[in-house]
User: What shape does this take?
Amino acid sequence: MRVWLVKQKAVAHIYGDWDESYNELPRWVLEVQLTMLGIVTVLRTSPVRVGGQVDESQAYFHRLFWTFPPCIEAFQHCKPLASIDGTHLYGKYGETLLVAIKQDGNSNILPFAFVLVEGENAESWSFFLSHLREHVTPQPGLLVISDRHNDIKAALESPDGGWLPPTAYRAFCIRHVAANFALTYKGKDARRLLVNAAYAKTKVEFDYWFDILQSEDPGMCEWGEPD
Assistant: This one.
């Protein structure tokens, strides 16, 4: 514990503590706007209330979206798809980082848009996806890949979000689907068959793996169907 406490003090001394880091965000946003033309940053804050009155001199951090000009430009030369996901940040304030990534023709991965939010909910995903659509991915016919999170579904299905077919389409990430599938069908072969079917490039190849799943257990083929 002593070593850990010393490490935390050293990190705070070099990089600043949690409060100082959040206080620096407005200055950071201004600096990158001045030094990198074309960068997109959207900072949202919440008012501080003292005794029922708004204190104009203070504000809480709420959300921050950002993307860099090379990332926006690179998207024009990549596959017309975007994979989105979130990860929890284990710090004092427990924020969540949402990220969008893309692939080039050689399947190399490039993160291209980021947002720091209070957590994964319909409002935070809508904030991310609306700015993603506005500033980075205005192209029609885009494929969005994600897990089956209900809040992502709600954000993508918003009538004014710009993500409904035929403007955009949605697919599920097979890694997440296979992980959930394995909770019910625990054999390694079952998961392998599902993944092979998902990666099939032709209908004939898909039917081949699907028929094997059907012969192993018809329930495997019905598992992903909506109620």
Remarks:
- Residues 2-15 form the longest helix (14 residues).
- The chain has two domains: 2-172, 181-227.
- DSSP finds ten helices and seven strands in the chain.
- The radius of gyration is 22 Å.
